[in-house]
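Hey, does this match?
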Amino acid sequence: MPPLVFSPSEALSLVMAVLDGHHPAHDATDPVGAAVGKLLEALPRSVAGPARAMRQHARVAPDRDAARPSPTVTAAVVDALADGRSVRVAYTTGSGTSLKIELDPWAVVVRHGLWYLLCHARHVDDVRTYRIDRMAWVEQLSTPSRPPAGLDPIDLLERRLGSGWTYRTHVVFDAPPGEVARHVIGPMGTLSAIDGATRTELMGTTDNPTMYASEWLARIPLPFTIVGGAELEQAVAEVARRMAEAVSARSGSTADAE
């Protein structure tokens, strides 16, 4: 076997990739940080010098939304994918419900610090996405499993994240689809042109109307109307009320000072 050889650029890029993933590359007590340290120690100083300096001095802010799965569980999922086998998993939903379900794995997709299994769920006979960090254990089954031909995992994941949730969302933007699409992410739902493509309809579902209103809709600099989804309508009204109160409170304090 030929010796493992890195260029200085490759070694530096490795440390940068670790930092991009919000891992503490400098922390020898962290499994990733320890692994990077061992690898750099095995490389010649002329190769590892810049990477060692970056590891020592660069720091990364933690990603508050990230939830890293167990390496053992993740490896079991990937092994099942590689072997073309179905799995049985112990899963805890976002609401805390414990499930034991059988899945046909199609792909593992990492999105914004979260690891998802895109799969066919046998108990509902439909496509589903499950967060791997919410899996307690994974058991590989003897049943064969194969992803559909021509599967685009990232595109399908984005579309699935916006469907199948509890509350309906229906928003109409007073702007053409091309303009709206620049501000809408996949989990928000599906866009379609209406009124001769002068306006745009966004339809989807969510389990968190407050987040949908305050983190997604509120940042879009385009006029819109909530057409459907009573829970979303209430959430948007609450966000608007809080913002209006913040402005009126400031105006009132200024008037008192004068």
Observations:
- The first helix runs from residue 8 to 20.
